[in-house]
Fold Lipoprotein.
Amino acid sequence: MRVKLLSAAAAALILTCVCGSYSRTGVSSAATNATNDTILVEKAQSALTADLPVAESEDNVQELQWRTYTSGEELRVMKDGLGQDDRIVKEVSLITGTSSGKIKVILYERTDDSIYVHAALVKDDTAYDLGAVAALSDEQVQIQDIFLFRKEVIKIQGAVGAAASMTRYIDIEDGVPKPLLLIDEGHASEYDVDHDGQEEVIASSGTIPSLSVYRLKDGRIERCQLNEALQADAVVMTEEGAVAAYFGQERVKLYWLKAEGLLNFAIYSREEFESDRFVTIPYTSDDVKRVREQADRQRIFDPYVPRQGIATDYSVEARSTTDREGVLQLSYPHFSVYESKTDLRPHDGGKPISGEKRYFPEFTAEWIEPAEGGGEWYVRLGSTYLSIVTAKPFDKEQLLYVIASLIPLEQVKPSDDSADVLPPLQITRDYLFALQAANEFAAAWAHRDPNSGLKWVTDEWKARQEPLELDAYFRGTSSPHHMTFELSGKRRVDERTYLFELRLYDDYAGQPDYVLGFPADYGRGGIIEVVKQGENERGDGIWRVNP
């Protein structure tokens, strides 16, 4: 799940109002055609042409000053509980997977405070005062269990203004609730900013966008204010998870936040960064159709395309590869993206080679360098394996930005304003039998019934699995155990193939919502293929699932 971050578009709009006459309202917005595009660079590199951004070297990482954050005083025990005249607004009981005892949070209005909503945390029979958590309004106060800084914490977030919130993180340490973080600068959210697999807390605020990061380091919480560190007018997180710093009306620098500091991997003029034909990749309806047609030919029914590039005017060429069966190649100026239904990583002794990993909300990117040099990023999104490669002098950090921008082809909005409309899914006898196969397959998974489930999958799929793997696929484990599914029809590819959207949900018994599984806003699966494998004696189609 991708968290909602203050986007570069918002930064551009605000800078337009604050700094003067800007010709655009945000990143990726419609723009006038830029002429004589030039790149503002801090280090000339003759190896790159004039229309390509220059990245600073790995050893030129800007170190950051982190300040230790103190969580404040311990929570006060409310010996007498709530006042008799205090009005309870809401009570929320929490499932605490790693702490003992029952916990609930009570929101209430105090008779002596007409401005704020207050909260109390009740553990067993003891109530703790959490203080003010939101302004009195119709806005809902969010209360949830989350996993942060390698521990289970309770998050309470409420609005205190039109564009600001107050967020409290409470740690249940040794059975006693203690304040972990109190953030009242703008809006706080959890995001793996340095892409190391552990979430930090980011806080975005201000009329001119400001970004602060809170992290756990050597057992203590530290804070860094990125505007101050970069001496930038505005700092935001992009949709790709990079840090974008705006310097007046002239420059935009892109950084990856790493443990050792901020690594700058691209520098653009603001006009270039916001252009709809420079960095942002436009797709016409014909582009979308060509990519889909080539993907269908390779039986890749869940194709992805990058939303962001590196530089220059963009076009895309889609074709099958001549040296690898079932692989789709999307060629852009400066790089190519490869897609397949099977793992694209190089193998050694039958096992895929591993490399350096970077973690994003929806995927893990793995950088693998072959012995002869070069390198590629490898990812898996849904049922599709992808890699990105270039023969030009771009470093892996620039390529990572491109691959972090991948979106499903079906989410592309054509730049020529002509809707790429697929023909409506016709309800026919073939569709009903295909839907039956998908439903019976998913029901067998939910009921953990391999005998029934294996009747509804293709022989080709079964042949690719080990016997024990086939049984385990349907039986699952005791925890998490298979729970339920969601199924919907997508489209008909040809006379023998339907596509369905299938999500399979697991349940971790007795665990809070932040644990992967049901109820969560994502599940295993994605687009599945249901193929016709003949007809029965009545002439009805025999349809089977190819997961």
Notes: DSSP finds nine helices and 33 strands in the chain. The first helix runs from residue 8 to 19. The longest strand covers residues 481-494.
